[in-house]
Design brief:
By secondary structure, the protein is of the alpha+beta class. The chain is about 40% helix and about 20% strand. It contains 11 helices and 16 strands. Strands 1-2-3-4-5-6-7-8 form an 8-stranded mixed β-sheet. Helix 10 packs across helix 11. The longest helix is centred in the last third of the chain and has 27 residues. The protein starts with a strand and ends with a strand.
Length: about 325
């Protein structure tokens, strides 16, 4: 049964706590991701660190009340709303920070995403390429770079890496690492078989990958989501929501997320067949409420990632219409 906790920590299952309900509270820079604490006796581990002093202080007060010190921090991926407080927690408690090797470089140096040589060598394409293909201006690209440097720059020293199938422990509880790429190349889900709980980062986001290629990848996202659907998940914790509880509810949530994005894929194909060809035109044609500028941005990023997967599969190609980059059926 779920119970309320003090310190605004929301709810818990036996030994599983989460810090912070989803809200539009912007403390310092952004909406903080949910922080999960896995505890057994005097031992605990932390999954994702959140960002901002409000979330940090909440977590410190909770750990003090529980009289526990974290043995490790696992970051499900490299995005700042999940990694932002990791260094402060690492300094305070002396615990190692762990994540997948594919996301480690950007967690340690977020501005690498704007290094064309590094991105081309490691990811095979650049973020500048994505902006060009979405007809975003050079000034928009530079503005994003400045925003990361000014507001979203939270580098963290990663002490070790985790791979698919690895197991880490809290007391007698074992958590299995499930590599879940798509939202990022190194996204992880942490599976607790003892109670069927999985902590999936931002993989189950209803807009799909929500990152442009090469930061996100649609085919990987689908495969990762299908893998979670196949597990016996009875508690689903992800990055910006209260946990979903119950096997049927969890399965329905994951299947609905997958099917919603598959429908979006079909709508993208329909838009291309009707002559919509720029990323913006395709996004405008979708039956998705994206009036919020932030949601609209994520939607366009997902559209770009889906189109890029179609390009890899040979079903669409890139062309030009005047100065615009267009996508057309092959």
């Amino acid at each position: 049964m779920l119970k309320r906790l003090p310190f605004d920590l929301g709810y818990y299952l036996p030994g599983v706590f989460f810090a912070g309900k989803p809200s539009r509270r912007y403390d310092d820079v952004s909406l903080s991701a949910t922080v999960y604490v896995i505890q057994q006796g005097s031992e605990c581990g932390i999954i994702d660190a959140g960002v901002g002093m409000h979330r940090f202080r909440m977590l410190v007060r909770f750990l003090a009340a529980q009289r526990v010190t974290p043995s490790w921090i696992v970051l499900t991926h490299d995005h700042y709303d999940h990694t932002g407080n990791a260094s402060a927690l690492q300094d305070r408690y002396g615990c190692p920070v762990l994540m997948h090797a594919a996301d480690k470089p950007l967690a340690e140096q977020p501005l690498r995403a704007f290094d064309d040589d590094w991105m081309l060598g490691v990811r095979g394409a650049t973020l500048r390429d994505a902006y060009t293909q979405m007809n975003r201006s050079e000034e928009e690209y530079l503005s994003e770079q400045r925003s990361v440097a000014r507001d979203r720059y939270h580098p963290v020293a990663v002490d070790g890496t985790l791979e698919d199938g690895d197991v880490i422990e809290v007391g007698d509880m074992q958590l299995e690492v499930v590599h879940s790429p798509g939202h990022s190349p190194g996204s992880l889900s942490m599976y607790l078989p003892a109670c069927g709980a999985i902590f999936a980062g931002d993989l189950p986001m209803w807009l799909g990958p929500a990152r442009p290629h090469p930061l996100g990848h649609y085919a990987d996202w689908l495969q990762s989501l299908n893998r979670l659907v196949a597990l016996e998940v009875r508690v689903l914790g992800w990055g910006h929501a209260v946990p979903t509880v119950g096997h049927r509810r969890c399965r329905r949530f994951l299947e609905n997320t997958r099917d919603r994005v598959r429908r979006m894929e079909a709508e993208i194909v329909g838009a291309l067949n009707r002559g919509k060809c720029t990323t913006e035109e395709v996004a405008d044609s979708l039956t998705i409420d994206a009036d919020d500028p932030f949601v609209r941005r994520l939607l366009e990023d997902s559209v770009h990632t889906i189109l890029h997967t179609m390009r890899e599969e040979g079903t669409v190609k890139i062309s030009r219409r005047g100065e615009d980059i267009c996508w057309r059926a092959s």
